[in-house]
Specification:
Layout lengths: L2 H63 L15 H4 L6
Length: 90
């Protein structure tokens, strides 16, 4: 092979490598964009779950702060069944 043929062959090989490199670069870029979108979606999902957890914790806290019902002084707690229904024990 003479020098011109070698030069042409080398140029073709370099062009093919460049083409493959461009294809790879485009593929990697597409993958990076896809992964970035998935990352953003997962971050949003985490934030939504954290907000929901915060709301649940607040609701639980609010619920525990509600005073439990107690017997008031005007309620009779010593009432027996016979006092309520005299016929019940006969």
């Amino acid at each position: 092979m003479n020098n011109n043929d070698l030069l042409v062959q080398t140029a073709r090989e370099l062009a093919a490598r460049l083409s493959n490199a461009e294809i790879d670069r485009a593929s990697f870029r597409a993958q990076a964009i896809e992964l970035q979108n998935e990352n953003d979606r997962l971050k949003k999902q985490i934030n939504d779950l954290q907000d929901e957890l915060g709301k649940q914790k607040q609701a639980k806290k609010d619920q525990s702060e509600v005073a439990p019902k107690t017997v008031t002084d005007d309620q009779d707690t010593s009432t027996t069944e016979t006092e309520q229904d005299p016929q019940a024990n006969k």
